[in-house]
User: Which sequence fits this backbone?
């Protein structure tokens, strides 16, 4: 395991896990033990932010938000991390043409392997509160994607929400698909934009997970059709944007 | 040495290859975990609470952590009895592990109807009557807190099935003994104890309850001493085998339950964190039996009562 802090409170961690790297697909996640005792009790789900079967490695990009991520962010090189994966359904085959990847904050993690897979078909838009929190920008650029940023305070790139940047660019051209990952509010906005412009859209959701495999039914997200719930862990974490209503975790 | 130790247990009319069951709700319908935790590891699989009709469950958030425990308010999400029989039972049967179906309802009639139907179903080895789900207004706990209502449900179910009956008791009562006694008097073969303790958390930043359902059921290591105490009480007073559950995470925990009076234990919350737990727990039980020269788990059941002296209950 190797780890570095790439932005204030944001960590990039690379773990040697050949089997996981070989089996994983973009959009999938791993459940990581984030403590030694009984606090925190549950594993924490993290998107696979790098899938590198050649080196037998997977990478995670995470922000410290509580005791679990604080513990994980304090792991030192060479230490062992207990993880289960790959879990969840990855991204479905996307329509041919340009795909815009829209990330809010650490949501970029889920989109990195997809950017890598799409290569020159990908264009990425990354939003954060301020420029120092634009974690994952360098990693995105390394995939060869065209990257634009938005900051709420205007300290870098577009001033405002990343979804506003998306709407501005939609005046100029139309992608074959939109793919988003970030806070629920941002995803809610993105799915409205996609619907308005009739662009196919997929979103990757965050949730507090229990088992991670669909057994405990803990990570319910409401279906848009009002017909009950889907499970983020086993039905997702990637959903067609029209399928679910993102809720704040 | 290994071959001298017998991990199989007798649980009323059931004979299980080992003393580990799954706690209803934490292991879905047995196939979700795949190779991480296959059904064959267990002496029996207890499936998620099943109701007559499908239920979509409670609004999220459904989970909240506390120190050493987990609050859940899933709300008995399940595909209904038909859905279970059609979708899940055939897949689970392939593993050739005993299947125990947990049934929940809000009228005595619900329990009776489900039991009558399941009585005819091959591949269902026993029923667990859930009169203790705290997360649904009519999820059975109203029955489980009162001896007369408990008796009514168990009597109705007993009349329509010859399959072994487990009755799952709630800890949300002052004294579990009268309820356990009522269940056994009406024909329960086995007592499962304990279900979750009702609790809640408040998000102080948002100044509102964390769970969508406001209250939830507390499980995990935090409730283990409560489970041990209740098993201890019921073992003394009621002549029926007990499946112990409530925060079992290790062989030591399981042994504590056996010594208090449980004939088998169920793993629940620990599976969400460590799907590999059953292997470790079984290894640890085996090692303990060898080290203390016991030949079977059965020899341990209730043994601590002999050494209890005169104090307490």
Assistant:
């Amino acid at each position: 395991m190797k780890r570095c802090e790439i932005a204030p409170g944001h960590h990039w961690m690379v773990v040697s896990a050949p089997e996981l790297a070989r089996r994983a697909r973009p959009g999938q996640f791993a459940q990581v033990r984030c403590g030694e005792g009984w606090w925190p009790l549950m594993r924490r789900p993290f998107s696979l932010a790098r899938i590198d079967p050649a080196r037998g490695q997977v990478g995670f990009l995470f922000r410290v938000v509580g005791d679990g991520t604080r513990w994980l962010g304090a792991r030192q090189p060479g230490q062992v991390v207990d993880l289960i994966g790959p879990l969840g359904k990855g991204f479905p085959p996307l329509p041919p043409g340009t795909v815009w990847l829209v990330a809010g904050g650490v949501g970029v993690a889920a989109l990195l392997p997809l950017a890598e897979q799409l290569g020159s078909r990908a264009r990425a838009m990354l939003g954060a509160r301020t420029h120092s929190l634009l974690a994952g920008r360098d990693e995105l650029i390394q995939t060869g994607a065209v990257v634009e940023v938005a900051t709420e305070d205007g300290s870098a790139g577009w001033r405002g929400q990343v979804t506003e940047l998306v709407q501005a660019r939609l005046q100029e051209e139309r992608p074959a698909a939109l793919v988003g990952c970030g806070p629920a509010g941002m995803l809610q906005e993105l799915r409205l934009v996609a619907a308005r412009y009739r662009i196919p859209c997929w979103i990757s959701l965050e949730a507090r997970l229990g088992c991670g495999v669909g057994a405990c039914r803990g990570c319910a997200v409401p279906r848009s059709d009002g017909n009950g719930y889907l499970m983020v862990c086993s039905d997702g974490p990637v959903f067609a944007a029209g399928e679910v209503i993102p809720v704040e975790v | 040495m290994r071959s001298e130790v017998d991990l199989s247990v007798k649980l009323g009319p059931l004979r299980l290859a080992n003393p580990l069951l799954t706690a209803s709700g934490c292991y879905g319908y047995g196939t979700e975990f795949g190779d991480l935790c296959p059904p064959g590891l267990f002496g029996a699989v207890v499936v998620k609470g099943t109701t007559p009709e499908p239920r979509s469950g409670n609004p999220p958030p459904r989970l909240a952590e506390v120190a050493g425990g987990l609050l859940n308010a899933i709300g008995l999400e399940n595909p209904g009895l038909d859905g279970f029989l059609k979708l899940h039972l055939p897949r689970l049967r392939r593993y050739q592990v005993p299947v125990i179906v947990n049934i929940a309802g809000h009228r005595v009639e619900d329990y009776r109807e489900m039991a009558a139907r399941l009585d005819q179903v091959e591949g269902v080895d026993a029923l667990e009557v859930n009169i203790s789900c705290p997360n649904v207004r009519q999820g059975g706990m109203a029955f489980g807190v009162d001896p007369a209502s408990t008796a009514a449900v168990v009597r109705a179910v007993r009349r329509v099935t010859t399959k072994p009956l487990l009755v799952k008791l709630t800890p949300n009562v002052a004294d579990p003994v009268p309820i356990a006694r009522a269940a056994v008097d009406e024909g329960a073969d086995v007592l499962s104890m304990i279900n979750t303790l009702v609790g809640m958390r408040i998000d102080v930043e948002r100044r509102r309850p964390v769970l969508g359902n406001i209250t939830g059921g507390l499980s995990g290591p935090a409730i283990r001493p409560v489970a041990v105490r209740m098993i201890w009480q019921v073992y003394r007073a009621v002549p029926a085998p007990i499946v112990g559950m409530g925060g079992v995470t290790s062989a030591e925990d399981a042994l504590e339950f056996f010594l208090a009076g449980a004939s088998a234990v169920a793993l629940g919350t620990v599976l969400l964190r460590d799907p590999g737990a059953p292997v470790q727990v079984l290894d640890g039980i085996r090692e303990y039996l060898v080290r203390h020269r016991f030949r079977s788990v059965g020899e341990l059941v209730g043994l601590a009562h002999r050494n209890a002296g005169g104090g307490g209950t």
Remarks:
- The longest strand of chain A covers residues 10-16.
